[in-house]
Each structure stands twice: as structure tokens, then as C-alpha cells.
Design a protein that fits this description.
Blueprint: H1 10-29, H2 62-73, E1 80-82, H3 83-101, E2 110-113, E3 116-119, H4 120-126, E4 141-145, E5 148-151, H5 165-178, H6 183-190, E6 207-208, H7 211-217, H8 223-244
Antiparallel strand pairs: 1-5, 2-3, 2-6, 4-5
Length: 245
Amino acid sequence: MAPKPERRSPRGKRLASALGRLAHFLRTSVGLSHVSATKTRTPEPPAVSTLTNDMMFSDYNARKAAQVIAFFAMRCAGRSMHVVKAAKLVYLADRESIKEFGFPILDESRVSMKHGPVNSTTYAHINGEYDLAACGWSDFVRDRADHQISANTSVGEDDLDELSDADIDCLNTVWKRFGHMTEWELRDWTHDRRNVPEWENPGNTSIPIPLERIMTAVGIENSDEQAEVIRDHQRIARVFGSLKR
């Protein structure tokens, strides 16, 4: 009988994810094509200049965020979904990635709002607060209309080149669990602290959600240490980013 494959511990999965992200960065950003990784597409390292306690990121990949939304929209009737559902699925996808790999899919701050947690910069893009053509957003999803956001008809899964295999795994997991819910069912689910304990009721304002709090909520031990791993990743990215300039 063939031996069972060895299962990776949560710490091992997070380390592999971190190494894969670094390998991807070295290959794509600095031209070190001989650097290998265990997956055909590996996550990008967060590309930020500083990482503060409230996780305010200075660089945001709008193209990648749009691809996350397009992934979900392509699975909806008419390749379209309500903007509230889009915002909730994006947050839940990051949460799933943090739980499985210790890293979010998207590098941005997250906040508690009246109707639950959201990724703040992605939410602003959904609301049309940026030049969506200039940042690459509109290459994958159409501007909101009647509170709907749609995947462009020309976009297929092979076009989602910003997403790693690990990202896709997380998106599939989230869709299988939450894709059947309506936008209002998702709103109710995510603003119930029994489900999302990192959310705080902010009233009519918003409250930052530190990454460490999400890590603790999803069961990552030593969340402060894991956050420091991400900070180290940022420092490495800055060094190689300076070499590229």
C-alpha cells in the first residue's frame, strides 16, 4: 500500500505560502527567473512601504481586486451580482486566505462598518471613487449599475493572472460556502459576531480591523509573530523594489 502523503501543518502551510510569494516577487519584479516555487502561480508579496498596527497599505493592486470580484461574478446568473454581495465575498476570501496561509489575498486595510466588515479600498473602488480605467479595474468588471457589478463578457478564468493557485483555492472555498447566499443574508452573517468576532459595531462611522485581530479570530496562534512575518516580507519587497528602480 502506498504511504499516505504527509499533511502540512498550519505553520508549514503559512511558511510555504510566504516563500512562494517571495519567489513570485523575485521572478516577476527583479527578473530572477531561476527562483522556483511549489505552485505554478504563487501569491504576490504585499507591496507596501510601511505596515502599521491598523494595516494601512500604501500600494493597492486594483487589478487583482477586480479579478477577485470577476471570479465570483462569473459564477452568478448573468455574470453579475449585487455590490453588497461582492464586498462581503471579497472580505470573506481574505479571511479564508489568512486562516489557511497567514496572508490576505489583497493588501489593504479593512474596517468594521454598520452592515459588517469590508475591505476599505476595494469598497471605494466598487463605489466608483477611483479612475477605474486607469487602474485596470474596468478591464475585468463593469462599473456598478443598479447596485450590480458584472464580470466583463470577454473575461474568462484564464485571464485572472493576478491570482495564485492558493488564491483560487480560497475563492473556491468561499464560493462553495457562501455563494448561494443573497447580499442581505451575507450582510446579516458577517455582522454577527458569533461568525465574525473581529467585527465591531461602529454605529454610523467605521473602525479599523487590525490584521492581528482577524488572525486571532480565525485561530492563528501567535498572531503578533505572524504579523511580523508579513512586516519582514514588506521589508524584503522594499529592498528589491529599490533595486528595480
